[in-house]
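Running co-folding for guanine.
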Amino acid sequence: MVISGKELAASLKRDMAAQVATFEEKYGRVPHLTVVLVGDNPASVSYVTGKSKASAEVGIKNTTIRKDASISEEELLQLIDNLNNDNSVDGILIQLPLPAHIDENKVIAAINPAKDVDGFHPANVAGLWLKQPCVLPCTPKGIIKLLKKAGVEIAGKNAVVIGRSNIVGLPVSKLLLNENATVTIAHSRTHNLAEVARSADILVVAIGKPRFVTADMVKEGAAVIDVGVNRDPESGRLCGDTDFAAIEPKASVITPVPGGVGPMTICCLMENTIECFLAQRGKIR
Ligand code: GUN
């Protein structure tokens, strides 16, 4: 079964739109997400456009601030400070990657954690690992929603996560652990990776290499979550980290690329923006 993130995201966005439609009357305004894009990296431009489109669908106010790639770190930090202090802004997202002359860690740490809709701020990362109230990162949150929607049981299962990035691999591992899976974090230097991967009831792949996971690495009946966003070196088309055609007949469920995890990431960004808006009003957390 192919799990459509696109369909689930559309349905969740409809529910959020109905919720947001009540906010003007209840709170006097709708949530406001501000996205900052530095430079003109085509992938970043496309991601930012997707975030703006989803905001419109949900009824969230979206402001996209575009800055030239030559902006200084100091100017960017000042902009973030202004947004932190602006009571009309509920969510702040700095699109990554940033130009090399800007320290990303410094920028992420400058965002008010209560407005950090990406869940990248060290205070939110700590909250996840310590099981304290926090903003959860969008892609890992979306993956858990997809698994639950597909009826995949997580508790007691062996989950193998290939990839250990701060954005996906590590946080999704912790969320799976919170759901009582037994989690192995593997990576490109794991010995006998194929064997480790074959032990997975749930296999999450976030390694950023086209067709990195082949059919022999997947156990019959496994649930496969493909987080990759790559260009196929032959066709030039968007593709994931798994050999989808060969694995699909073997897997109990698998996410396609595009149309799997990607739409769920944006959907969870909308959810995080609403959660930050409500938390400011003492309604959650
Ligand atoms: N660049 C690629 N993915 C992301 C993301 O989830 N958030 C931000 N801010 N930048 C990204």
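Result summary
The pocket of guanine is lined by residues 93-96, 118, 138 (CB under 6 Å).
Strands lie at 32-38, 61-67, 91-94, 158-162, 182-186, 202-205, 223-226, 230-231, 238-239, 253-254.
Job closed.
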